[in-house]
From TrEMBL:
GO terms for molecular function: ATP binding. SMART domains: AAA (SM00382). Keywords: ATP-binding, Cell membrane, Membrane, Nucleotide-binding, Translocase, Transport. This is Energy-coupling factor transporter ATP-binding protein EcfA1. SUPFAM superfamilies: P-loop containing nucleoside triphosphate hydrolases. The gene is ecfA1. Residues 10-240 form the ABC transporter domain. Belongs to the ABC transporter superfamily. InterPro entries: AAA+_ATPase, ABC_transporter-like_ATP-bd, ABC_transpr_CbiO/EcfA_su, ECF_ABC_transporter_ATP-bd, P-loop_NTPase. Coiled coil: none annotated.
Length: 281
């Protein structure tokens, strides 16, 4: 791939993972090679049991690879910043503080951020996810979606080089999902490497690269364009051939293209589709 020439954030070299199962072991991720360039927005998609969460935990070094190695680039900047943070699907596993504010600053204190910076970093992270007004509330009174946003705020606050969202928007209502996506976009613009893991393909609008997993193996690795739209001579897109349903905007665009309408650039959202259609006039 063209990104091979760019400096990496994470390199997976022949990585596989097997876990104990009835009668022996079960391979959850097959030998995988993956180069994730600095600052890339990588989306990982797949059905339940495809290996997405296993891959996320291997990237974060929460699981030891059965074979192969996971290599991090040298971390620039302040030594107290963690290299990678992961936002899990279940937010209850990371609740630490007695208040929302204390929960966010827990990581900042734990990693040794300068005391004079901690309050501002914590409040800025809460503002990004829309929880500033609940700073003094107990995490116990938050809704499931608010707990997910709180978990995200704690990870945003410590400014990792790589931020992994492991189906982090799955419990969120549409407005909260957009808030979380916007927070991820702002960090991406600042240079953070984003790994966004999901089953919801309408969350892939910001992705620069998509990797699809099936039975613990990579079955697609390419751009949004080549995932959602068929190349010349192909029957159906990679998305459709792999059994996924494209986002509504892409479905409409594909139907228009079948009827001979040209769309440029190729749209991935309703807003982009509207702009492409308005260009006909």
């Amino acid at each position: 791939m063209e990104n091979k020439m760019k400096a990496s954030s994470i390199d997976l070299q022949g990585v596989s993972y097997a876990a104990a199962a009835a009668g022996g072991t079960k391979t959850l991720l097959q030998e995988t090679d993956m180069h994730i360039p600095k600052g890339q927005w990588l989306a990982i998609v797949g059905a339940n049991g495809s290996g997405k969460s296993t891959l996320a935990k291997l990237m974060a070094k929460l699981y030891p690879a059965t074979t192969g190695t996971v290599v991090y680039s040298n971390q620039p900047g302040a030594s107290y910043r963690p290299f990678v943070q992961i936002i899990f699907q279940n937010p209850d596993v990371q609740m630490m503080g007695e208040t929302v504010y204390e929960d966010v600053r827990f990581g900042l204190d734990n990693y040794g951020f300068p005391s004079g910076e901690i309050h501002g970093l914590a409040m800025n992270a809460l503002d990004k996810v829309g929880l500033t007004a609940l700073a003094d509330a107990s995490p116990a009174v938050l809704s499931g979606g608010q707990k997910q946003l709180l978990q995200a705020a704690g990870c945003l606050a410590v400014q990792p080089e790589v931020l992994i969202f492991d189906e982090a928007a799955s419990m969120l209502d549409p407005m909260s999902r957009q808030r979380l996506l916007q927070a991820a976009r702002s960090l991406h613009v600042e240079g953070t490497t984003i790994v966004w893991i999901t089953q919801l393909l309408d969350e892939l609008e910001a992705s620069e690269r998509i990797v699809a997993l099936e039975s613990g193996a990579i079955v697609f690795d390419g751009s949004r364009e080549t995932f959602f739209y068929p190349r010349s001579g192909e029957v159906g897109s990679a998305c459709e051939r792999l059994g996924f349903s494209p986002p509504y905007a892409v479905q409409l665009a594909l139907e228009l293209m079948k009827r001979g309408r040209r769309l440029h650039p190729l749209p991935f959202s309703i807003e982009e589709l509207g702009k492409a259609v308005s260009a006909w006039e």
